[in-house]
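Late entry, evening session. Most of the bench is empty. Finally got around to the prediction I had been postponing all week. Sequence below, unchanged from the version circulated by S.P.
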Amino acid sequence: MKKYNFNAGPSILPDVVLEAAAKAIIDFDGTGLSLLSISHRTPEFEAVVADAKNLFRELLNIPDNYQIYFVGGGASTQFFHIPANFLKTKAGYVNTGVWTKKAIKEAKLYGQVEVLASSDDKNFTYIPKGFAIPEDLDYLYICANNTIYGSEYKTDIDSPVPLIADMSSDILSRPVDVSKYALIYGGAQKNLAPAGVTFVIIRDDMLQKVVRELPTMVNVNTHVENNSMFNTPPVFPIYVLRETLKWMKAEGGLEEIYRRNVEKAEMLYAEIDRNSLFRGTVEKEDRSLMNICFVMTEGNEDLAPAFMEFAKSKGMVGIKGHRLVGGFRASCYNACPKESVEALVACMQEFEQMHK
């Protein structure tokens, strides 16, 4: 049976990327050695890192006064790396769910945290807007896409203080004005690579704003100055990331990827809104392109287990909602093909006909 992968992460990757990675595990770049056992100091792998940075810069239109580095530890490590480097007195955070809550907890170890806005009052089903940003903050922190609840920032905030964003789950899914951000980071396991590598895009002036003495591996300058190779980097995920960026460029770049993502999301949201058995959980203006969350309509909640089993029988994988929310979640990342969304829509329509 054909499988349709909607896992929230680690997520689907393009077939051509998987094929390249599989070949490289046996013979990397004609070296006769496996990618899994080469030295990261070889010219061949140094070229992979350089390619990945250049493609990242080209696809996201990253200005010249920004540096890019790759590091291990996942986004969760960045929750404390950010305040360790930049929180001297007070930082502002916008609370939009689980990941910002975790980041706030870590930041409080280093200084005062002011929660400027929160969507906790409505179970994180919207993105707060119109809040004041004090100019005495060391930085403002947001999480651009809420993977668990399915909300997403649709515009780039104008901030009078350095703006820092976790873009783990929507990086390179839509255009972003990088110049409005002081730092963007994310785990790669949604749209870029297997788990194990984190990307950081940092504006040059932030490298001079580290506020305290830090362990070497925590200081952002370490990774910029050593070209992501102060210690052995996550070689395999970086290679896959490079291949994914090559795939994106070959497919038409960010503009085409964004067009496809909008098309997929609009198709699925339209069915959620039309179908008498399902309803969306997020305010329409803030619905995520990447993580589409829905539940059964009122009076039909008891059909949820039956729909889950029916969807599995049709090849749907990974559509169970997060345990904190319940219901269903279809993660439609860049490599998720339109055909998968069409199959899920057909599944929902058939299930509705069965229960009329």
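Two things to note before I forget:
The chain has two domains: 15-250, 252-354.
Residues 86 and 190 are 26 Å apart (CA to CA).
Will write this up properly tomorrow.
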